[in-house]
Amino acid sequence: MKLFYAPTSPYVRKVMILLEETGQRDDVELINVATTPLASDASLLAKNPLAKVPALERPDGPTLYDSRVITAYLDARGGDRLYPGGARRWDTLTLEATADGILDAAILMVYETRLRPEEKRMPEWVDGQWDKVARSISALNTRWMSHLNGPLDMGQIAVGCALGYIDFRHDTRNWRTGNDGLAAWYKEFESRPWMKSTVPPAA
Q1: According to the model, what pLDDT value does residue 203 have?
Q2: What is the crossing angle of helices 123-143 and 154-170, to 10°?
Q3: What are the structural domains of the chain?
């Protein structure tokens, strides 16, 4: 298999951690691509019409894209370890969706300042995106700590990647303030070996 990736992408990071956790890292060749909403990589576009990473090329079917599709596929291939069954499955999926929603808003904030001309930027729009992030982080801190402190699953990995991205791109926003339980959880979670090995390079 081939994984089209960018080392700074938090969605890619989710996939990389799952590969490490399930022992499948050696089954995947990494193809580094540079793509933005304004400049799509041609090799990636041929595999994913949305021109987004990650995208997973398989030998026995169409290329998969969207990180949640890829992680679900790889987890099934690796023995169904990180998407539990029963009632906990829906909690895991909701937690992962919350984390990905945090990432969606946080990345849009980056695009606003990096890709949009300065005279067209809307600070109030950026603040609106941050409000989504802040509300979601507060919800994690007040509603989800029991799940986060439970057996490892993809929801926890997604939250870890989301918080890591906030530190990476928006550290001045001080998400830890008022979220002591989540901050303590993340301090321990980010010390895991595969969290350390997938820290994005400064860019």
Answers
A1: 65
A2: 140
A3: 2-77 (3.40.30.10), 87-197 (1.20.1050.10)
